[in-house]
Please model this.
Amino acid sequence: MLTHPLIAFDIETVPDPDFGRRVMGFKGDNAAVIEAMTSRRLEETEGKSQYPAPPLHRIVTIAVARLEPDTGRFEVGTLGGEVWDEASQLEGFAGLFEATSRPPRLVSWNGNGFDLPVIRYRAMLHGVPLPALYRTDGDWKWNNYQSRYHDMHVDLMDVLAGYGASRWVGLGQMCELLGVPGKEFIEGQVYEHILRGEEELVREYCKLDVVSTLLVFLRWLVQRGDLETGRLRELVGGIRGALDEEGFEGWREIAAGLENWPL
Model:
């Protein structure tokens, strides 16, 4: 598992107002169209969900946490340009596969169920090539990003639930179980913050998810026997130091909470 650079990734989305206008016939600005789309969806699902099918989610943030297992080098950030520039974010995701000397191992929480399908649909919309994601030639036949049971992409939520044999668990609950420090950087729905112009909060919220995912993944590697506890503490120390340098004030509490983690 530690033979490749690790990239934990996560996306944040809003209902796509362009689709709402072009196909569904809704009128008005983004706020009005998104409100109409969520209301329609609530009617369709008898109040169970306000969110559309995966292809109709517009990506507003892609966050990644990168860790080089050999050196402990860690960084966290978001891809692409501003929140409505979806194409640049997808191009940034495509670039992840070219930015390292070895192919990265992707890590996610529900990436197979949501994040990667949305990325594939939206990349098709914008004409963004993702050839590395689909490789099955040579040795990639036996371990690639597409197969649910391979480990070049580890959907940790799916793996821990026995690929659906047990009920899936939310990332927040898993972090509470393991004592991974965390807090909510946003209140309410992502689209509400985006429409209010609070892009920074959404970006930091997404970054927090990928950091949490990476930490849970590292703890899982200890369980697998792939990582010694002493080395885990060294890696967490580097992550803590990097988070302490983040500009957003909310990271101070997260970094402090990692001082004695894992418990």
The beta strands are 6-15, 57-67, 74-78, 105-108, 153-155. Residues 130 and 231 are 34 Å apart (CA to CA). Residues 6-16+52-140+153-257 form a domain with the Nucleotidyltransferase; domain 5 fold (CATH 3.30.420.10). The chain has a mean pLDDT of 95.
